[in-house]
Amino acid sequence: MNAMRAILARALLGHLAQQPGRALMSVLALALGVALGVAVSVVNRSALDEFGRGLRTVSGQADLEVRGARVGFDELLYPQLALRPEVEIASPLLEIEARVRGAAREGGADAIKLIGLDPLRAIALSPALIAPPAAPAGRGQETAATETSSLPDDDVLFLSPAAARRFAVAVGDEIELQSGASSARFRVGGLLPAVGAGQMLAVTDIATAQWRFERLGVLTRIDLRLREGVAAAPALNEIAAGLPPGVVVATPAQAESRAARLSRAYRVNLTMLALIALVTGAFLVFSAQALNVVRRRSELALLRAIGVTRGALVCWLLLEGALIGAIGSMLGVAGGYALAAVALQFIGGDLGAGYFQGARPPLAFDPWGTIGFVALGIAAALAGSALPAREAARSDPAVALKSGDVADSFARLGRLAPGLASLMAAALVVWLPPLGGLPVFGYAAIALLLVGSVLILPRLARLLFARLPPVPRVVWLSLAIEQLRGAPHLATIGAAGVLASVALAGAMAIMVGSFRQSVDVWLGQVLPADLYLRAARAGESAHFEPAEQAAILATPGVMRVDFLRHQSLLLDPALPQVALIARPIPADVPERALPLLARVTVPAGQVGVLASEAMQDLYGWRLGQRVRLPLAGREIEVVVAGIWRDYARQHGAVAIDLATYRGLTGDMRVNDAGLWLAPQSSTTQVAEALRARLPAEAI
Amino acid sequence: MLRLTALSKTLPALAPGLPPRQLLCAIDLDLAPGEYVAIMGPSGCGKSTLLNLIAGLDRPSGGQIELAGRNLSTLDDDGLTRLRAAKMGFVFQAFHVLPHLNLRQNVALPLALNRIEAKDTRVNEMLDAVGLAARAGSRPRELSGGELQRVAIARALVHRPALVLADEPTGNLDPETAERVLALLRDSIRAHNAIGIVVTHSRAAAASADRVLRLGNDGRLHAA
User: Which of A133, A552, A697, B35 is 20 to 30 Å from B95 by CA-CA measure?
Assistant: First the structure.
């Protein structure tokens, strides 16, 4: 029986082996789509796994975490929480985004997270962050190192193995960390073997961290373990009610979800690129299979005549498509994992987007993502094969066994109604709201637009070719035109794959081009100064103090300076932080400062802020609405005075006038400065002068 | 036993305003196993259409066809397909030998479709009968037209069908080869006690049949 099946399989699929080149393009297109999709999925899975491991390392056995914006909150909250009846253990933490001085800076390769903790508290909640007792040999080594180190005993930190490897330091070595204008040297007291392989972590005593990085009295997070029998949900609500503005409490799972959301839009867009390749693959499969059905018309008719049923023929042709899809998918999976490994090694877990800076997570197997893209690859091939299979089954074998009716193949493709219906559906679907925050219907509209365009192609081809004059002198051209006139639907088959790929490539080029143009215009509006100065990267802890601001203002060649203060606000524990930008904003003409889409006049005595479009979408803010912002440890009511377009911060941004911000918070520090130069001043000269006046590591 | 009763076929009008065309009209025909008939007639008279109706590849406008006690008009498309697979063999003018199968595999196809075991013996017998046993592993592109038609005859008879339908089987062959192929077809049909119907323009081809029928322009079948 198997031998019989083998003959049937060879009768229907044998042509693939005979002429593999025809199927190769389809296989490659599908492989490309699957490879891109799998790579994006695997890289993201690896990054999120690593991020999750990081979270669990820090708050492995905590039930709740209390977190503020990166700038932190008053440490007086710690005793309040620790004394709550439902809390068994509270562990205070100070997390500082730092960089290792002297390390290569490209791609955030010098970034490290310094965690200041109380070891007596953290050992219960974050045991992975506590170094194990040193072995005798290690102790001897450490002692020797201590004897040669000039550092006080307090200035000891412990490194994750990955960080020790990256920065080529061993136990007993010294390492200098910098955050903002502050830097401090530490002796490496040991390694943290329980910390995940890809994590760049350093741990020190919380008092040391606060002292060395000028964060005395500040915490960024408190991990809580609840007493036995206390339910997390009601405790969370009760604790949340007592927290100061800008500080939120969440479960560790919510924190992981926030991390996943951070890269979601970027990931979805990359996945859509992969799906575009898959759609192109589906059209190529359609072209290849349709031409294959036309070419093998008499073969398939013979099989129908000698006993292959319509259903069996459809199944075989779909199987043929599935086989192409499966081969393409398998190649794509292999390519995807290879691509992911290279991307993780050289670009990082965020594919260069900067969400998980410094992380180099190990490659993780992503079973569901892989299965999903293999299924999509096969589904794309099946979709491309479906119409040709149906056409083959519908064709009359008696007619097909006689030659000369090829032009009638796929004649139904010449009908206008399906194409118009598809285009109209695209026009309707595009207005549907997002699903789960994703523009699913937008993507569906693009697919429908593409399908509709392909389907109306025969009619357009008929109109076009009917108007072409005869070309009697050039026989081959004349024959070609007559062929297209007579069977425009066959032109559609040939053109479908090309049309799909060229249309999608063209659309991508137009989209990228127009986006770049828009961003150029936008940048000209939001960054109008001649020269920009930024305090050293490494989070918001990098800033210029008033004395440094005065030095910048007094720099020769500088005519005017606009200072900017960046903060982050945690408005919703389930969402990533929102950027707060304090910059000079003229009250009467705010559009001079930012690209406003709409604005209202702020009532006298009220504080106006400008919200980015993302704030509308994510938080439902509306023009003129009164909202409360956590600023300087209290909630301040402000009015949404305008909506502006922000291409830089997808998780939302709120802009406030710098003077107003300073009046409300008393915070006189800034992170950036926009410099307008005096006539005849050169940017090079001014930049040199600034470097001379400011600490080299601070800009 | 093949029985055609008052069989008719009307084609739709070629253009608006023109009447439909009565291609076949009240055809009655009984054929017993072992009978081999030739159907002749001018081009366009409906010979191939008649063959298609008998094969269940087309539906009649009226009348009925019975093969081995089965009324074809009661069968759906899948039923007709299965009947063709089990009871019919085909030989075409254009051979229609699958190019990516070797001769043995081409001949074995009807056995595979009917899930008949012991295929090697039958295939070898048929290839031997048509004189191609030595070339069983060859590809169709290595064969001449006459050899291809012999493969088609072997394929048409390997599953021992009750009815063999041949549409211009010698149309693409030179006279000498055509004569050999016709003799083979006739002998094979007789050897298998099948009913054979050959549609042809060729008098030589018709001469090899037990009985010759002529399909006239009136759509009726007459004895020649």
Answer: B35
